[in-house]
Amino acid sequence: MTYAEKCRRIVELLDQLFPMPAAPLSHRDPYTLLIAVLLSAQSTDKKVNQVTPALFACADTAEKMVELEVEQIRQLIREVGLAPTKAKNIRALSEQLLERHDGEVPADFALLEALPGVGHKTASVVMAQAFGVPAFPVDTHIHRLAARWGLSSGKNVATTEADLKRAFDRALWNKLHLQIIYFGRQYCPARNHHAQDCPICSWAAARADDVREI
């Protein structure tokens, strides 16, 4: 099987399993998505979705968020990892949105990444899910699966992102990154994964040993 054939078969299977993947983080607009994605670092989407309703009930815009003290924000998000740092960043990025962007989330990678606490992955999720701009955010699931399937060396997330963007048509990126996340959660976990039972690893594993167990 050629590399192109492998990619095509992966797309076909993921389309069958997850034809219309929804964004996993609950949000109402670009601002609430930005905050939710920031909160998701070193935390689960499930936990973030449990925390954000109370946070957004108090402040769901940059204007409302800056009215809260950092400690108030921290208390509202205390159940997620790195809550003290995230609370400071949420307050600071909200201030910058007001000062530089009239309170609106900019649809621009560089401007997003200039905000406190916003890295490339967070910016990519916001651009893809809030603005429909093609992006390929790489989380732990995508990084792991890309290496398992021989689509990337797995050297680092930047390499994985670049390899996946070359492997798949730009029009597929936004949907495909969600499909791979859901596939990783349901079929291809990091531990206790038996490749021979996996719908994709069973035929696409990068190494011969992986077909027995990863």
Summary keywords:
single chain, 214 residues, mainly alpha, Endonuclease III, domain 1, Endonuclease Iii, domain 2, 2 domains, 12 helices, 0% strand, disordered C terminus
Q: What do we call the CATH homologous superfamily of the largest domain? A: Hypothetical protein, domain 2
Taking the sheet with the most strands, its summary is:
none
The number of distinct structural domains comes to: 2
Shape: elongated
Q: Beta-strand level of the residues, as a percent range?
A: under 5%
Q: What is the number of helical segments per DSSP (H or I, 4+ residues)?
A: 12
What is the helix/strand order?
Answer: HHHHHHHHHHHH
Write the layout of secondary structure elements.
Blueprint: H1 3-17, H2 30-40, H3 45-58, H4 62-65, H5 70-76, H6 83-101, H7 109-113, H8 120-131, H9 140-148, H10 157-167, H11 173-186, H12 201-204
Helix pairs in contact: 1-11, 2-3, 2-8, 5-6, 9-10, 9-11
Outline the structure in words.
This protein has 214 residues and is an all-alpha fold. The protein has two domains: 30-131, Hypothetical protein, domain 2 (Endonuclease III, domain 1, Orthogonal Bundle), CATH 1.10.340; 137-211, Helix-hairpin-Helix base-excision DNA repair enzymes (C-terminal) (Endonuclease Iii, domain 2, Orthogonal Bundle). Helix content is 58%, strand content 0%. The chain contains twelve helices and no strands. It is elongated, with a radius of gyration of 19 Å. The two termini are 21 Å apart. Residues 208-214 have low confidence and may be disordered.
